[in-house]
């Protein structure tokens, strides 16, 4: 048994090393734009990942390149006419978000910190408590198309319940990881917070992900994690002024955000989404922080809803 555990530990360690090398290679080529193998090797010799100080064998490089294509769907192409230089094919796709951008950004920051040990105490991150314990098991089940048995205690119930689900996708939002999964018992799609899971195990029961399921599309019309079809998708227009306008500009509330009617004092921000409870809460947060006028223009029911939540219209700096 001891040998088995050691073997598994060694296997996981080797997998982690290879993963870091894959992302290092993508990051190196992506930042260079076009780079020869000799230049890649020179950077590898200076990398903190190269704990042996050895050169990168050509065969290993091509093995890494093939693995990267399979794991990340990233193609490292070679331009033979320009002296055998390597580049990321369709590099513009790397800037469109998603897991590839997240992986590269995460690696770039971690690598920079590791290279600058004296800065570690001066760089602070937000912790995501729910991701540490269960995220790996969930992703492995998604990869293997196996169901999960989880013991779950929601914020609305005093007792936990145990049931089986088919994991479709995961999403992080506001320092919490969420699992979108189909209940095996009733076939309904639900969203579970990983921080509310008490126990989680992968089963041997296979499931088939529906061919038409699109994780991005599932949340496209939602502000955060609430997907409530009782709310129709509609146009929301909000006038925001002062410094708060700059916060909304630089960190859009939703992918559909557009800005119009721009003056020195304020702008109108328009959205196309479901104005669910979490979106309403977000608007209220910005209203509280606004140092200038903020006004919900439409739809009318949302404007009236904001007024009834508790804001006094006699406060001239807020018009909701």
What do these coordinates show?
With 320 residues, the protein is α+β, with helices and mostly antiparallel strands. The chain has three domains: 2-122, Arc Repressor Mutant, subunit A (Orthogonal Bundle), CATH 1.10.10; 129-215, SH3 type barrels (Roll); 234-308, 2-Layer Sandwich (Alpha-Beta Plaits), CATH 3.30.70. The protein is built from nine helices and twelve strands. It has helices at residues 2-32, 37-46, 58-72, 99-115, 129-144, 215-219, 243-250, 277-289, 300-308; strands spanning 35-36, 76-79, 85-88, 146-152, 161-173, 176-183, 189-193, 197-206, 234-241, 258-260, 266-273, 294-298. The chain has a five-stranded antiparallel beta sheet. The radius of gyration is 24 Å and the shape is globular. The model is unreliable at 1-5, 8-12 and 312-320 (pLDDT under 50).
């Amino acid at each position: 048994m001891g040998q088995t555990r050691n073997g598994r530990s060694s296997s996981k360690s080797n997998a982690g090393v290879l993963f870091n090398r894959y992302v290092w290679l993508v990051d190196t080529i992506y930042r260079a734009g076009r780079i020869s193998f000799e230049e890649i090797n020179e950077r590898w010799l200076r990398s903190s990942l190269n704990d042996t100080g050895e050169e990168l064998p050509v065969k290993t490089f091509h093995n890494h390149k093939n693995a990267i294509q399979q794991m990340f769907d990233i193609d490292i192409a070679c331009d033979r006419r320009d002296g055998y230089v390597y580049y990321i094919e369709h590099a513009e796709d790397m800037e469109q978000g998603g897991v590839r951008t997240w992986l590269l950004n995460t690696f770039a920051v971690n690598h920079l910190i590791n290279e600058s040990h004296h800065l570690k105490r001066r760089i602070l991150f937000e912790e995501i408590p729910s991701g540490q314990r269960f995220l790996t098991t969930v992703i492995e089940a998604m990869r293997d198309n196996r169901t999960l048995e989880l013991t779950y205690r929601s914020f609305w119930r005093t007792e936990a319940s145990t049931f089986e689900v088919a994991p479709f996708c995961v999403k992080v939002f506001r320092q919490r990881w969420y699992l979108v999964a189909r209940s095996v018992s009733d076939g309904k799609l639900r969203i579970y917070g990983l921080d509310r899971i008490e126990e989680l195990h992968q089963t041997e029961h296979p499931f088939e992900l529906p061919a038409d399921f699109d994780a991005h599309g599932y949340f496209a019309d939602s502000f955060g994690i609430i997907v409530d079809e009782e709310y129709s998708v509609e146009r929301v227009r909000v006038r925001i002024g002062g410094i708060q306008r700059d916060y909304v500009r630089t960190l859009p509330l939703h992918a559909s955000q557009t800005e119009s009617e721009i003056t020195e004092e304020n702008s109108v921000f328009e959205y196309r989404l479901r104005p669910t409870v979490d979106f309403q809460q977000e608007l209220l947060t910005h209203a509280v922080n606004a140092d200038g006028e903020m006004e919900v223009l439409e739809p009318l029911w949302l404007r009236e809803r904001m007024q009834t939540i508790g804001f006094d219209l006699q406060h001239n700096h807020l018009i909701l």
